């Protein structure tokens, strides 16, 4: 894709202003929130395994990466939705310009829509029960959903090889790095955590720290992917520009 984000800015009409936001500012906001969530999770881990107070442990659970439906879950969901919107926006421009990779962009947007839904509904955990009868769900495969997960990753890797090569070098490296980080956490560290859970259970510091590492890699990968996708939209300027029209009649 060569044209998205690189077209010249048209002359402004009467009552129309151009607003811009630098991608670096979005990076800083997302990175800052992530560091705060990570710090709170580490504090929650320390509190959980140093205090026997049930009230304090319930508070700590609101910030632990290994728990569900809490602050880290909300932030991860937000990152997934942000990537879905960014990829969907690129897809809209790609279809408008009849770009050869338009279906790839659309697939990525829909895939992240599914990931956001899965983050909220935990669909992939239901695969564990299905895969229990297919593989030996023990040790590193105790969370057996990783088996179809690996298959999906390999299929996407094969289907999107030429797509990555067609991207500008910087964007391709960003997408590749994001994929390595996200898959490394979601599947790689998940399998290590599964083996620990199988042998020692989940209620221990080691499992909590592994879950923190897993989510850290996933969230970092999502932030890198968002940066790379916004870079495709912005072009070489590094800023997203918006046209704001003011006035009556048909102006928006």
From TrEMBL:
Keywords: Membrane, Transmembrane, Transmembrane helix
Highest taxon of source: Bacteria
Signal peptide as annotated in the record: none
Residues passing through the membrane, by range: 28-49, 74-96, 103-120, 140-163, 175-199, 219-236
Protein name, entry field: Multidrug transporter
């Amino acid at each position: 894709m060569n044209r998205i984000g690189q077209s010249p800015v048209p002359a402004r009409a009467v009552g129309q202003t151009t607003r811009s936001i630098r991608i670096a500012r979005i990076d800083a906001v997302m990175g800052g929130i992530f560091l705060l969530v990570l710090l709170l999770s580490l504090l929650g881990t320390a509190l959980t395994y140093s205090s026997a107070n049930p009230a304090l442990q319930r508070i700590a659970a609101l910030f632990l990466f290994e728990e569900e439906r809490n602050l880290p879950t909300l932030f991860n969901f937000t990152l997934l939705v942000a990537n879905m919107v960014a990829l969907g926006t690129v897809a809209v421009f790609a279809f408008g310009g009849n770009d050869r990779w338009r279906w790839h962009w659309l697939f990525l947007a829909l895939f992240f829509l599914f990931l956001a839904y899965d983050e909220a509904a935990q669909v992939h955990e239901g695969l564990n029960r299905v895969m229990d009868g297919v593989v030996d769900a023990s040790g590193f495969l105790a969370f057996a959903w990783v088996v179809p997960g690996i298959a999906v990753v390999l299929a996407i890797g094969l289907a999107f090889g030429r797509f990555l090569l067609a991207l500008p070098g910087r964007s391709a490296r960003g997408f590749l790095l994001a994929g390595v980080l996200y898959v490394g956490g979601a599947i790689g560290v998940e399998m290590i955590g599964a083996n620990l859970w199988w042998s020692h259970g989940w209620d221990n510091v080691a499992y909590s720290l592994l879950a923190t590492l897993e989510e850290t890699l996933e969230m970092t990968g999502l932030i890198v992917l968002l940066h790379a996708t916004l870079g495709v939209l912005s072009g070489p300027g590094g800023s997203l520009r918006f046209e704001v029209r003011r006035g009556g009649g048909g102006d928006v």
